[in-house]
Amino acid sequence: MPVDVDRNPGKIDNRPLAGIRVLDMTRVFSGPWGTQILGDLGADVIKIEQPGRGDDQRRLGPPFLMDDQGGLTSESSYYLSVNRNKRSVAVDIGTPEGQRTIQQLAAACDVFVENFKAGNLAKYGLDYSSIAAINPRIVYCSISGFGQTGPRRHQMGYDTVMQAMCGLMSVTGLPDGEPGGGPLKVGLVMSDMMAGTYAAMAILAALYARDTRNSEGQYIDISMFDAQLAAMSHQASHYLVSGEVPARFGNGAPSVSPSNAFSCSDGEIIIVAGNDMQFRRLCEVLCLAQLADDDRYRTNSARVTNRATLQQALETRLRMHTKAHWLATLERAGLVAGPIKTLAEALADPQAGAREIVRYVEHVSGGTVPLVASPMRMSATPLDRYTAPPTCGQHTEEVLRELLDLSRDETHIGRRQA
């Protein structure tokens, strides 16, 4: 198994955010997802963790990473997925010494990110006003369930609840009248991921504004609730324009037809015809040219209205051959179709290999850890460095000596033993 180490050992870091330092006081998923994006882009991300305990996400398993002897470590796959390219510093913010340490670190940073409950950090002197008084150029980002304003601002937010409250579950799954019908959760923590992604983009924009206008930093308020509602995009627009509450279509698309899973003789494939020309070509390939001239299917709007009968007509033909036969036939015709793969099959796809999606890096506990690489491909400032997610407090002495010029004995300040 090849280990993907730093591809530019001893050379200048050319990643776009090299030289930017981020103080990361986030836990679990939304915040770490956002700061990992910044770390991939080259920022020096300093992850603050509770001594002896660390990020709660470390314990969200199994599965856990194995060391080179085949034994289980304490690093969960959940934690590993969002904490690469960071340094971990263990500091107890419940002590005056720990609070002073964080304030001193903030003075040496460009960005401060936290996802505590709204207002909680004020009692530690680590809220925006306190940190900005120390470092006026700081870009301070708060990520919370419902934001810093509104009647729900003090409520905690978890992804499943956000998916339910923001309408995502209402448009996911089969219609009520079908077996297994009803609202369904998406299999990813979408509201966490959207909040973290929006946070990273907002931070980049704030840094650009600060540095191009020679101005001070600013405060960023990101909420999972806002982010998930924003991500409802065309479904939200559907309702706002028409007043109609969007329905569930299973694997189908609400405004494009055909776009669905179709049964072949040995299983299902996905077929999408995004315009009238593609639909006509699809009909010709399936030897169903008459459908393209049928008034019920001549236009996309008509096909959306008559999706059920069109689905039946296409599947009757598709069931005559295997998935492999139809996928090859449709590919030769330049049409859009694909197999429904497991994650194992997707990661083993030759395209994933060509794009170097999976990277293996050395882990301090022994052995290697597999990572899913950043999808950002940049020619002049490549994202070509990956370090393993750190163990709790792995870099405490290193960071405190480097940034605060503390001696080895002094680096234990504000670190209560577990």
Judged by helices, strands and strand pairing, the structural class is alpha/beta
Radius of gyration: 25 Å
Q: Please name the fourth-level CATH homologous superfamily of the largest domain.
A: Crotonobetainyl-coa:carnitine coa-transferase, domain 1
Largest beta-sheet details = 6 strands, parallel
Indicate how many domains the architecture comprises.
2
H/E topology pattern: EHEEEHEHEHEHHEHHEEHHHHHEHHEEH
What is the helix content? 25-40%
Head-to-tail CA distance between termini: 36 Å
Morphology call: elongated
Unreliable residue stretches: none
The CATH class label of the largest domain is Alpha Beta
- How many DSSP E strands? 13
Strand content: 15-25%
Strand order across the biggest sheet? 5-2-1-6-7-8
Q: In CATH terms, what is the architecture of the largest domain?
A: 3-Layer(aba) Sandwich
Q: How much is the average pLDDT?
A: 93
CATH domain fold name of the largest domain: Rossmann fold
How many helices does DSSP assign?
16
Describe the structure.
By secondary structure, the chain is α/β, with parallel strands linked by helices. It contains 16 helices and 13 strands. The chain has 2 domains: 21-231 and 348-412, 3-Layer(aba) Sandwich (Rossmann fold); 259-341, formyl-coa transferase, domain 3 (2-Layer Sandwich), CATH 3.30.1540. The longest helix is centred in the middle third of the chain and has 23 residues, at 190-212. Strand 12 and strand 13 form a beta hairpin. The chain has helices spanning 30-40, 77-80, 96-107, 128-134, 159-165, 190-212, 224-231, 233-242, 276-285, 289-292, 300-305, 307-318, 323-332, 343-347, 350-354, 396-404; strands at residues 21-25, 44-49, 64-66, 72-76, 86-90, 111-114, 139-144, 219-223, 259-264, 267-272, 336-339, 358-362, 368-372. The strands form 4 sheets. The protein has a 6-stranded parallel β-sheet with strand order 5-2-1-6-7-8, with helices on both faces. Strands 9-10-11 form a 3-stranded antiparallel β-sheet, with helices on one face. It has a two-stranded antiparallel ribbon with strand order 3-4. 34% of the residues lie in helices and 16% in strands. Helix 1 (30-40) packs across helix 6 and helix 6 (190-212) crosses helix 7 (224-231). This is CoA transferase. It holds the Pfam family CoA_transf_3. One of its GO terms (molecular function) is CoA-transferase activity. Keywords: Transferase.
